[in-house]
Amino acid sequence: MSSGYQPQWGAPPPPPPPPSPPPRQRNTGLIVSLVALGVMLVVFVVTGFVTPGFLRGDSGTAEPAAPSSTQPSTGASTGPGTEPSAGETPTSSVPTSSTGIEQDPQYMKPMEAFVAKVNARNAAGAAAMTCKDEKSKRLTLPRIALAVAQGPHYTIVYDNSGKSVLNLAGLELAGKLGNRAVPTTPAAGNPSHIIHTAAVSARKDGSVWCINAFYSGFGDIDKS
Questions:
Q1: Quick check: pTM over 0.70?
Q2: Bridge partners of 184?
Q3: What is the pLDDT of residues 189-213, one digit of tens each?
Q4: What is the DSSP letter of 123?
Q5: How far, in Å, are 31, 71, 96, 98 from residue 38 at the CA level?
Q6: Beta carbons of 198 and 215 less than 8 angstroms apart
Q7: CB of 129 within 8 A of CB of 211?
Q8: Residue 205, Cβ density class (10 Å: 0-12 exposed, 13-18 middle, ≥19 buried)
């Protein structure tokens, strides 16, 4: 039997508040990294494609000019074909041949020295300038001795001298041997060109020029 008692229920409690969203992580470090990367990329593009442009690979890009020398000019020749400056004179006093080519002192001076020794009757000095092979000795030594004994007075005919492509050079000689004048003969096919029968020739052995033949100009000597 109901006692008539009714329990008293209070109002239901309010629902709990929703959970707070987790705090956002700070992205400052990421942002800084992205900004730095962007700056580096811009610098790379500028330096690679604009200036100095090491990524362009332009084949037509001009090379920087070489710095000019600050040393004063000495007036010396800088290479083949260099013309002397105004007022300069060639260092070589050797005349040019009839071909217009200046004689090279490398081969002219030994032959000039040889002729000077013969004229001075220095047979030993002239013989010492002879090439060492047997043919050269045969074409020089006996003729030197005979020419020196007769009193040589040779002069060099520079117009009829020169050098071949085979490291051979020659000088024609005029003048006298004792009382006999050096004979002359017209050149074959060119009678106006006179050839002297006396001559001296030199050959280049290694880096040295030596006398390989001497012609007194007279058959009684040159037949030896």
A1: no
A2: 196
A3: 888 889 999 999 999 988 899 999 9
A4: H
A5: 11, 50, 76, 79
A6: yes
A7: yes
A8: middle
